[in-house]
Amino acid sequence: MTLPLEFTIRNRLQGVLARTGEIKTPHGTIATPAFIPVGTRAAMKALTTDQLKDTGAQAMLVNAYHLYLRPGYDVIDGAGGINTFMNWKGPTFSDSGGFQVMSLGVGFKKVIDMDGTSAEKPLGKKEKLAWIDDDGVRFKSHIDGSMHKFTPELSMQIQHGIGADITFAFDELTTLYHDYYYQVESLDKRTHPWAQRSLAEHKRLNSERSHRPPQALFGVVQGADHEDLRRKSAKFLGEMDFDGYGLGGALRKDAIGNIVRWMVEELPEKKPRHMLGISEPNDIFACIENGADTFDCVSPARVARNGALYTRYGRVNITRAQYTRDYTSFDAECDCYTCQNYSSAYLHHLFNADEMLGKTLATIHNERFIVRLVDDIRSSIDDNTFFEFKEQFLTDYYSKK
User: Fold this and answer.
1) Do residues 343 and 221 share a domain?
2) Residues 166, 168, 173, CA angle at the centre, nearest 5°?
3) Which residues pair with residue 310 across a beta bridge?
4) Which of 12, 171, 200, 378 could disulfide-pair with 191, CB 3.0 to 4.6 Å?
5) Is residue 276's pLDDT more than 70?
């Protein structure tokens, strides 16, 4: 019988929790640590799957909520699964849809406010679109206002229809604005029971859908920035038969390393851990040092489409006038298709002329930059130069700040 996932640890970094390894899936192997680009609606905006593959991306993540609404998980299932549907030949992840359906009903500008300092913002004129109870989440479609309800069972049915190699249990996304007592209630009445329901439905579907490759399921650890709750959640989920674990929810950026460590110290060592929604370089280093294996985030592509490009010395905006007559490569150290073939002046022109090609070339560069950074971190763990590489890279990257 084909296993849904095999994880092998290759090397460990002495004194910390960082490690390198391999995740084997039915659609290929991921060398870890690894950055997983996000193709929300079965597409990386502005890129073909071949262009994304050329950035060095080993896998990609798609969004269950958006694919449920359009085109429908039955359509993707009918095509033979997400790999066939979008012509992606590598491993895939799918999220549970929980972030999206719950964020619609939250009355702040952003669901996960990671500095923990802002006051709660009222909904104002924006209509509330989601309602949470112990069974699941009712929500209105952001597309046409139609009513829907996600439960752990439906989330798993959607993800199995999508056919991703690695799926995630349905959980409640809390925020830093929820008090401690709400966080306790959320774990006890929703996230943990929903994990049990997700696992039961996942096993049923894997058994029933023997015509498809088996899929892996990761439980998602919650608990905000409370050490006792993070450890409690990790221990509870760690004793269940998950294939790996998602490190999720709201957390303070200034404590991200410690929060990851709290979870990892309670989770089974021989199973992979995926950090949800992280791509800032200092966060990547902190999470890897404390035991995270894979990451996903929309940010590199999103900022690229607005003209913000990564460099070794920080992020810059290609629309600035200084690039009007800069005929050199945007980043002479970068091996991406964009930097090997186009000048800064050309990129500057494309954005100022609102040409779609500018977004494509910028996205190629940013995805390659983050993929390569994590690849270099993986190499630094293997050759025991992690701390030297971390110090030099972060000093350079944040030098302007």
Assistant:
1) no
2) 150
3) 315
4) 171
5) yes
Does some domain include residue 207? yes
Q: Are residues 125 and 208 in the same domain?
A: yes
Question: Quick one: which of 220, 252, 225 has its CA closest to 237?
Answer: 220
Determine whether 296 is an active site residue: yes
Show the beta-strand stretches assigned E in 115-260.
130-132, 137-140, 147-150, 166-168, 216-221, 244-247
Residue range 212-220: mean pLDDT, rounded: 97
| Shared domain check, 324 and 280 | no
Comparison of pLDDT for 77 and 252, the residue scoring more: 77
- Mean pLDDT over 207-226 rounds to 97
Given the residues 165, 293, 296, 331, select the one marked as catalytic: 296
Q: What is the number of domains present in the chain?
A: 2
* Bridge partners for 341 per DSSP: none
Q: What is the dihedral of CA 367, 369, 371, 372, to 10 degrees?
A: 150
State how far the Cα of 280 lies from the Cα of 360, in Å rounded to an integer. Answer: 21
| 289, 314: one domain | no
How far apart (Å, rounded) are the C-alpha atoms in residues 226 and 222? 10
Q: By CB neighbour count within 10 A (0-12 exposed, 13-18 middle, 19+ buried), where does 15 fall?
A: exposed
Per-residue pLDDT at 1 exceeds 90: no
In the annotation, is 95 catalytic?
yes
Domain check: are 16 and 112 in the same one?
Answer: yes
In the chain, the amino acid numbered 180 is Y
Q: What is the pLDDT of residues 45-84, one digit of tens each?
A: 999 999 999 999 999 999 999 999 999 999 999 999 999 9
Residue of 95, 113, 165, 283 with catalytic role: 95
Q: Identify the three-state secondary structure at position 38.
A: strand
Give 340-350 pLDDT, tens digit per residue.
Answer: 999 999 999 99
Burial 309-320 (b: 16+ CB within 10 A, else e): bbeeeeebebbe
Q: For residue 179, with 0-12 CB atoms within 10 Å meaning exposed, 13-18 middle and 19 or more buried, which class applies?
A: exposed
119-151 pLDDT per residue, tens: 344 444 455 678 899 999 998 888 888 999 999
Q: pTM for the complete prediction?
A: 0.94
pLDDT at residue 100, rounded to an integer: 83
| 24, containing H or E segment | strand 19-25
Identity of the amino acid at 31: A
Instruction: Identify residue 13 by its one-letter amino acid code.
Output: L
